[in-house]
């Protein structure tokens, strides 16, 4: 039931969608006139070795510029430091801001960043073509990561972003939620009229991709989306207001919501529950890349390679994310706690819908305004 991403169209589609949405994903880097493309460097296989560890320890630190959630980055950085005794200096830059700053620094000959962990594939490709990013690959790539989770030679995503259906159990009782949210058709339940929260499709990639899935799949389609709009949903320009209203009971359910965020909220005592429908979007857009002129070249390589080891996967699971590494067993602490509840059911193994970014690129300019019209957006 899943779809695989073509890496070339992934980069083009993601950038176009974000630009059309008025988001800062790639535009500042992509629109900057580029010098002649740098000669194509040979691919470097980066893996954890005793010599690399020794060299990285001599450097003693690595600087990671990231856009991943703080809740993800912090335990990963701490685990790396515990294992190697190498400090991780963190610099959070949302969206494309990390690439924009990296471009400015690199063109000025100021080399500050070692590793980028960002959600800007088009900017990554652009700066890679200029020779600012190292051409690298983890060892044994075909058996390590599934297609659609990496831009070969540039960036590799270590975790999935899985979309779920959250609900407030005071509004939608768990027994009913288990039944109606087996599919997204549960959103058409008459009791949820006026109690559904939907984010503007122009506001976040996750919102647009989820709605696009409805248009793409025959079991939903345009008719489903029209009926969803007829449910008088509450419309939000971002996710924060929707999450707050869901927690307070002002609404019963909300789109989009991400699994690892729900795991964190659950562990902190939040009462919001969720369900896994028959199919839902899974995205891999948080790429790890290495600066070609990293000041701490060995530590940069060690960090990037380590994230894709079993120890790195464990750190990702400590952050409550689902690793993209093939064959990693489930070890997230939230899962063990959720299994003790009377409402949670495990995520189906075949429920991922990976968006076709070529279609995303082509459809966004006309589909996004149509989505807004059908949902009742004004202005």
Summary?
The chain has 379 residues and is α/β, with parallel strands linked by helices. It contains 16 helices and 17 strands.
How much helicity do the residues have? 40-55%
- Overall pLDDT level: 88
Strand count, sense and barrel status of the largest sheet are: 6 strands, mixed
Q: How many extended strands?
A: 17
Report low-confidence residues grouped into runs of 5 or more.
1-34
CATH superfamily of the largest domain: Periplasmic binding protein-like II
Question: Count of helical segments?
Answer: 16
Topology readout:
Blueprint: H1 7-20, H2 27-30, E1 44-46, H3 50-59, E2 61-66, H4 70-84, E3 87-92, H5 97-107, E4 115-118, H6 121-129, E5 136-138, H7 141-144, E6 150-151, E7 155-156, E8 159-167, H8 174-180, E9 196-199, H9 205-216, H10 221-229, E10 234-236, H11 239-248, E11 253-255, E12 257-258, H12 259-267, E13 273-275, E14 280-283, E15 287-290, H13 297-307, H14 310-318, E16 322-323, H15 333-338, E17 352-353, H16 357-375
Description:
The protein is an alpha/beta fold. Helix content is 42%, strand content 16%. The protein contains 16 helices and 17 strands. It has helices at 7-20, 27-30, 50-59, 70-84, 97-107, 121-129, 141-144, 174-180, 205-216, 221-229, 239-248, 259-267, 297-307, 310-318, 333-338, 357-375, and strands at 44-46, 61-66, 87-92, 115-118, 136-138, 150-151, 155-156, 159-167, 196-199, 234-236, 253-255, 257-258, 273-275, 280-283, 287-290, 322-323, 352-353. The longest helix is centred in the last third of the chain and has 19 residues, at 357-375.
């Amino acid at each position: 039931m899943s779809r695989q991403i073509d890496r070339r169209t992934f980069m083009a589609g993601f950038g176009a969608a974000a630009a059309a949405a008025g988001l800062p994903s790639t535009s500042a880097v992509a629109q900057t006139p580029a010098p002649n493309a740098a000669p194509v460097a040979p691919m470097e296989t980066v893996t954890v070795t005793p010599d690399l560890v020794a060299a990285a320890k001599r450097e003693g630190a690595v600087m990671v510029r990231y856009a991943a959630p703080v809740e993800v980055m912090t335990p990963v950085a701490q685990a790396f430091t515990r294992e190697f005794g190498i400090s991780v200096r963190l610099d959070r830059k949302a969206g494309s801001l990390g690439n924009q700053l990296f471009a400015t620094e690199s063109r000025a000959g100021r080399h500050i960043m070692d590793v980028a962990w960002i959600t800007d594939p088009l900017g990554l490709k652009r700066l890679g073509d200029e020779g600012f990013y190292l051409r690298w690959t983890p060892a044994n790539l075909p058996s390590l990561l599934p297609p659609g989770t990496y831009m070969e030679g540039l960036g590799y995503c270590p975790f999935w972003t899985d979309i779920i259906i959250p609900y407030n159990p005071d509004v939608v009782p768990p027994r009913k939620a288990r039944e109606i949210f087996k599919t997204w058709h549960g959103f058409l339940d008459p009791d949820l009229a006026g109690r559904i929260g939907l984010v503007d499709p122009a506001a976040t990639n996750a919102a647009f991709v989820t709605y696009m899935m409805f248009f793409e799949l025959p079991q939903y389609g345009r008719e489903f989306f029209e009926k969803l709009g007829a449910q008088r949903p509450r419309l939000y320009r971002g996710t924060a207001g929707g999450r707050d209203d869901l927690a307070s009971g002002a609404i019963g359910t909300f789109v989009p919501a991400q699994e690892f965020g729900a795991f964190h909220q659950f562990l902190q005592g939040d009462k919001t529950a969720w369900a896994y429908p028959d199919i839902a979007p899974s995205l891999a857009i948080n790429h790890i890349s290495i600066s070609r002129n990293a000041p701490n070249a060995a530590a940069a390589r060690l960090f990037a390679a380590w994230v894709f080891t079993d120890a790195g996967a464990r750190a990702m699971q400590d952050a409550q994310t689902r690793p993209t590494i093939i064959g990693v067993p489930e070890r997230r602490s939230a899962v063990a706690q959720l299994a003790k509840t009377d409402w949670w059911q495990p995520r189906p193994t075949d429920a991922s819908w990976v968006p076709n970014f070529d279609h995303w690129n082509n459809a966004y300019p006309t589909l996004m305004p149509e989505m807004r019209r059908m949902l009742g957006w004004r202005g």
